[in-house]
Every structure is written in structure tokens, then in C-alpha cells.
Design goal:
Layout lengths: L16 H7 L2 H16 L3 H5 L5 E6 L16 H17 L8 E6 L7 E7 H10 L1 H8 L5 H9 L5 H4 L4 H7 L4 H16 L12 H7 L4 H12 L8 H11 L1 E2 L15 E2 L3 H21 L4 H10 L2
Antiparallel strand pairs: 1-3, 2-3, 4-5
Helix pairs in contact: 2-4, 5-7, 9-10, 10-13
Length: 308
Amino acid sequence: MGTTLFSAPTEESPGGWESALKALTLGDRQALEAFFRAALKDALGGYVLYGEKPVCVENINAHQHHGLGSNYLPFDHFHKSQIYFKKGYEVWKGLPLESKKYLIHLSDDTLFGGYDLIFVNKKSVKEEFFKSSALFRYVMGPATTAESILDAFETKGESLYPLTNDNRVLIGILLGYGVENALMQSRHEYIFDSLWDHEQIYPLQSSHLKSILSRKNKKDASLYAQRVHGPSFSFSTILDENTWLRAGNQLSLARAPSDKLAFPWFGYWEGTESEGILNSYSKTQKKLAAVLNSDHFLEEIFDQLFSE
């Protein structure tokens, strides 16, 4: 028997989530329960719904499972989760309900093919924007607001990567890695990418510089390469900078209380911000384990989604 965290309602609230849940067919209810169980156990949607993670993106390619382009073998564990996401979302979008706190939607505006299933914690997105508003406006434009970002998710159907201009710092912040970790991890990744792509522009470097220098002589072009592909301030060489970044980099999975449930995976550097984020995710994972074990699992989920 599971743990009872939620007492099933004895009275139906007219027009409320209890009514919508009761009106579901058995098949639709099973599809919706499988959807949320996969979101909490195999993906990171639970950290959005029950924690402080701003955004979770789960790419779905379930429609490709018989082709050579499939991400997973047919009917393996992860392929089943993808099927649950696709089927369950069809039920979810047909519900006559709207959460004021969370957004769950499917976007075909993705870099990876298929669809992006996106979970958004509206409050957390606003908080992260407030902490780093200058950075968001630098990348996305000076008129950007938290509300315009949420609107892009909700009404325009945009996914995270196109929305942020594929900026790894903003992506890391919205995925809940922390500002410092997002800055350092993105720099680490850009350095690695530059080994394979010599045209790679590092973050916060002006692409206008390239257009100016490319019209001049080879000496100026060489100067451009040195400025764009040179080390950050305080480092003599790219190698020195990369060595420093690697030395401090740790993986978040080592801090997961359990390997039975998904845990946010990212590189982090020691500090107050990282410690707070990892402690929060650890507490949320324990909470998710209890929710998954509840005798009234779907009622728990709906209460979390739609309670004021």
C-alpha cells in the first residue's frame, strides 16, 4: 500500500479539478497517470511542479520508434516513457482546466526533431528573471520581461532553445542550474566547442567585430581570431582557463539521495548558490518519492497543479 498524502475529496467542487478528474474515462485517467508518473520518475517535471526548478524540457521522438532515427529501442524503459508523454499530453490538453501556477505544453519549435514537452514553474521563472534581468535583456533584447518570456511559452508555443537564442547561459539559468554555474559551464562548453569549430563565437563577444575585421587585411583577421578565441580576463592561455574550469567542475548526480528517481544533471562549482540548489533538489526528490507512493497519486498531482 502507498503512503496517503492526500485525502480524496468527499464533495465535488462544481467546475473544479475534482469534476474534471471524475469525468475522465478509465483509459484517459490511466494515460494521464502514466504521463505524470513518467514526468516525476523518469524526467525532471516533478522538480518544476514540487520544487523550484523554473523549466524542464523533455524531447519526444516516440513517433520515430520504428525508424533508424529512433533515440531508443522499441519498448525499452525510455521508449515507454516517451509513449506515455505523447499519449498523456493528448488527454492533458483536452482538460477544461488551466493552472495559474504552472504551464505544461508541447512545442514543435525544437532543435532536436520531434517535440519538446515543457514544464514551467511561473513563479520560479519570474524569480530567476528578476535576479538576472540585465543578462536576459542583453541576450534577448532590452524590452524583455518575465511576462514576455512566459507568454512566449504559453501563447506562441516556443521552446526553450529558440526562445533564448540558444544562449547557454540563459538556458542554464532557466533549467535551474544557478547563475554562476550557468556562466562557468557555458564557458567551459564554448571552449570545448571551439576545438571543433574555429568560427565559434564565445558568449558576450561582439559578432560585429568579425564583420569589420573580415573586410580588412590578414593582420586584422588574425587580431580578430586572437580576441574572439583568446582566454578570459585573468588567464594567459585558453589551456590555463580550461584547466581551471575542469579542476572545479563537479557533477550534480553525485549529490542525489537516490538513483531510483531522476535527478537534475548539471556541472557545478562549489559555492553558496550551488549548495542551496543541490539541497533544494535533494529535498524535492524525497518529496517526489512520497508522491509517487501515494494511494491517491493523480489527486495529489491535480491538487498541486490547481490549488490556489
